Amino acid sequence: MSTEHCVIVGGSHAAASIAAALRQEGWEGKISIVGEEPHMPYHRPPLSKAYFCGEKNEHELLIRPESFYEKNDIDLVLGSRVVGIDREAKKLTLHDGGEIPYTKLALTTGAKVRKIPFTGHELPGVHYLRDLGDVDEIKKYVTEGASAVIVGGGYIGLETAASLRKLGMKVTVLEAMSRVLQRVTAPELSAFYTRIHTEEGVDIRTDVTLEEITGDGKVNGVRLADGTVIDCKLVVIGVGVIPETELAEQAGLVVNNGIVVNEFAQTNDPDIVAAGDCTFHHNPIYNMDIRLESVQNATDQGRIAAKTLCGNPTAYSALPWFWSDQYDLKLQIAGLSQGYDQVVVRGDTTSGRSFAAFYFKEGRLLAVDAVNSPKEFMMCKKALAAGQTADPNKVADLSIELKDLFTAP
Ligand SMILES: Cc1cc2nc3c(=O)[nH]c(=O)nc-3n(C[C@H](O)[C@H](O)[C@H](O)COP(=O)(O)OP(=O)(O)OC[C@H]3O[C@@H](n4cnc5c(N)ncnc54)[C@H](O)[C@@H]3O)c2cc1C
After folding, report:
1. Domain count of the fold of the chain
2. What DSSP string runs through 63-125?
3. CB 153 less than 6 A from any atom of ligand 1
4. Which pLDDT score, from 0 to 100, does residue 1 have?
5. pLDDT at res. 125
6. Are residues 372 and 284 in the same domain?
7. What's one Pfam family the UniProt record gives for this protein (predicted)?
8. Which of 309, 343, 359 is the last residue of a domain?
9. Quick one: pLDDT at residue 12?
């Protein structure tokens, strides 16, 4: 009988991945998942999409059914925040004073929303969106025909705008930069999403600064720096996330824009691994140190962490990929476009609703954003993972078949 006990802190994508992979890898000891949220691990992406629109219920969000945890003898300690790690004694302290001993520890504490203390941000009707509870609260303020303001034109902001339009609200998106999705996509994509949202009735305002959220007992509007007032009964703020590293820092683990882990998902304590949004790690494909906010990374790095814990270390080397659903548009992103110096569009971003944008650096393919183009996404993902590139002068030529675009490294 094994005396090992792996405790996984955090109860989301990375946690579920580690727990499942531990059993697959033959871990015979005890496994516990300690999560602050009261829910079993659930898919977070539908929160701003299908769950928000009422197309999926809470049960349909579950990553694994309850029976999976029972069958695999995985203990779920939900609604419990870990407040301290004693690495010498190898035990965790919970918010209620309880203690849990461990022999191996996995940190999957994810990310938390970046909060900006705008005047009026504490008014009822002003929300951030990160977990299920947030969406349930936001939905209390959703009324057909009423107005909502979204602060932040990133993926979460735009997905929420699309969902609120589906639910019949009037929506204004406020973006401080000169275009939406500026941090993550090329100008062509920003222009495309601005066009679509405008066609769908969203009022997108860029280069604007939110001065104040107004209200009397509950939110009734926002005031911009130029004096413009927009009436609304709901404000959703989506201005990014920061890694949840408090616990790791307190425990003396190395933290730098995330918990620093090596290619085996190990922290500087050999008995502690970490995976998901909370980690800062090296990506060998791009030869870059990165922190990712994606289900792909949480799941894949989680598997790597489990292998390490089971004494079968395997280096993490996955091509990052991501998606975003807005209206009938499925954006699928293969690779990382950071540092690109050229964008070539295959298809047309100015009319229609499908195309693929290829990002290059010094003529070498870095990443592809594919909108309603699953074939392009799949082929580019495969090519990028295999280290292939494409000729930027040929990509826009639709007479050349997609499969003929890629060339060996
Ligand atoms: C609305 C929304 C839409 C998204 N859409 C997409 C998408 O379309 N595609 C995509 O790839 N990604 C998307 N993402 C990002 C994706 O959900 C995250 O990358 C993923 O959830 C990361 O998983 P994780 O397990 O690393 O961390 P998280 O999901 O952040 O989970 C961390 C968990 O740890 C818990 N926790 C933290 N500290 C403690 C502690 N001390 N004690 C106990 N528990 C603790 C937290 O409460 C949380 O439940 C979206 C995210 C949001 C919020």
Report:
1. 3
2. SS-HHHHHHTTEEEEES--EEEEETTTTEEEETTS-EEE-SEEEE---EEE-----BTTTSTT
3. no
4. 74
5. 98
6. no
7. Pyr_redox_2
8. 309
9. 98
- 108 and 245: one domain? yes
Residue 321 forms part of a structural domain: no
> What does the radius of gyration of the chain's CA atoms come to, in whole angstroms?
22
What's the confidence (pLDDT) of residue 310? Answer: 98
- Give nearest CA residue, ligand 1 atom 20: 295
Q: What percent of the chain has pLDDT over 70?
A: 100
Domain boundary among 237, 265, 291: 237
Detail the DSSP E strand segments found in 348-391. 355-361, 364-371, 389-390
What is residue 236's predicted lDDT score, i.e. its pLDDT?
A: 98
Assign residue 377 the CATH number of its domain: 3.30.390.30
Residue (of 232, 192, 194) closest to 210 by Cα position: 232
**Residue 322 domain-assigned?**
no
Q: Is 265 touching ligand 1 by the criterion CB < 6 Å?
A: no
Mutate to test the pocket of ligand 1, among 241, 245, 279, 295 (most ligand atoms within 8 A of CB): 295
How far CA 26 is from CA of 23, 76, 88, 265, 272, in Å, comes to: 5, 19, 27, 18, 18
Q: Is the CB of 111 under 6 A from ligand 1?
A: yes
Average pLDDT, the chain: 97
Same domain flag for 147 and 200: yes
- In a domain, residue 269? The reply is yes
Number of H helices, E strands in the chain: 9, 28
User: What is the distance in A from the centroid of ligand 1 to the CA of 403?
Assistant: 35
Domain encompassing residue 208: 126-237
**Amino acid occupying residue 11:** G
Q: pLDDT of 63-90, one tens digit each?
A: 999 999 999 999 999 999 999 999 999 9
17 and 66 within one domain: yes
* Pair 208, 255 in one domain: no
Structure tokens at 274: 């970490």
pLDDT of residue 300: 98
- Tokens found for residue 150: 């979204």
Residue 302 and residue 161 in one domain: no
CA of 219 to the centre of ligand 1 (A): 28
Q: What is the CATH number of the domain that holds 22?
A: 3.50.50.60
Could you tell me if residue 367 is inside a domain?
yes
